[in-house]
Design a protein that fits this description.
This protein is of the alpha+beta class. The protein has 9 helices and 5 strands; from the N terminus they run βαββααααβαβααα. It has 2 domains: 147 residues, no CATH class; 115 residues. Helices cover 66% and strands 15% of the residues. It is elongated, with a radius of gyration of 22 Å.
């Protein structure tokens, strides 16, 4: 299952040991690490990125989902709630991409108290024992949540709403005349621009998901070549989940993109 993990430690030293433990589990094939990073909250409450490793836990980046969750946790007080309610526009995309619920974000924010250090990771795992036993041995407290397709659902819902509003404005323009018609034509033009932008965002997200799926399948293929025999069948199952998830997530976005194109073409 594709999950986001937040592991809280009392020190940066222990957090770095936690990162090494996750990398070892990845190398053996027990889990797949798509992205990982380490953050710490100082005495004044400010969050600082301490360490980040990339796709598959082997590079220099942290991956989109991990970066998004870190962005939420590193923001000002109230950013988490604002991301969900839409009152802080810059955080909304991070909330979608992280793919976790408000309660998980609030718990992570609350437990990352001043002086604490957290390992943030996106992983594929079949069971929780390997990570939990390693992290608990190091004094870490593990929180995890399965990632949801929040971004794709949001895009689909937004485009459906925009399409409906655009159709209503077109109908009003046809029924109107004079100054009222002129004002409505201005609103219609604005709605068309917004719908067109939504179509482009949907297409970009489709391209992003394709690249993400290809990258993950490449990571899993490389991992399969190095993994212990006992974990190889599990890695093949993970690869199938990646392909299935890609098909499921793109279905809604493709629908949203086609809805927007159809509305603009009529």
């Amino acid at each position: 299952m594709n999950r986001m993990l937040v592991v809280i430690f009392d020190s940066e030293t222990k957090a770095n040991e936690g990162v090494r433990a996750m990398r070892q589990l990845h190398a053996e094939g027990g889990i797949t690490v798509y992205g990982i990073g380490v953050i710490a909250r100082g005495a004044a409450g400010k969050v600082e990125i301490k360490e980040a490793m990339g796709q598959g836990g082997m590079g220099i980046g942290m991956g989109l989902a991990v970066g998004s969750l870190i962005g939420l946790l590193a923001g000002p007080v109230g950013l988490v709630v604002g991301a969900v309610t839409g009152t802080i526009a810059g955080a909304v995309r991070d909330f979608w991409v992280a793919g976790v619920g408000l309660d998980f974000l609030e718990q992570a924010e609350r437990d990352l108290a001043p002086g604490k250090v957290a390992v943030i990771a996106e992983v594929e795992e079949e069971w929780t024992v390997p990570v939990d036993s390693q992290m608990e041995t190091l004094g870490g407290v593990v929180f995890r949540r399965a990632r949801a397709d929040i971004a794709e659902e949001q895009f689909d819902g937004e485009v459906a709403t925009m399409k409906s509003e655009y159709a209503m404005l077109k109908a009003e323009v046809k029924r109107s005349s004079g100054d009222a018609k002129t004002k409505l034509e201005g609103k219609l033009a604005s709605a068309k621009t917004t719908l067109d932008a939504a179509a482009k965002r949907s297409k970009q997200r489709l391209d992003d998901l394709e690249g993400e799926a290809e990258s993950r399948l490449g990571d899993l293929k490389s991992q399969l070549e190095r993994a212990k025999d006992e974990f190889k069948s599990g890695l093949e199952v993970r690869a199938k989940r990646v392909r299935d998830a890609y098909a499921r997530r793109t279905a809604g976005l493709t629908k949203a993109w086609e809805q927007a194109k159809d509305a603009l073409a009529t």
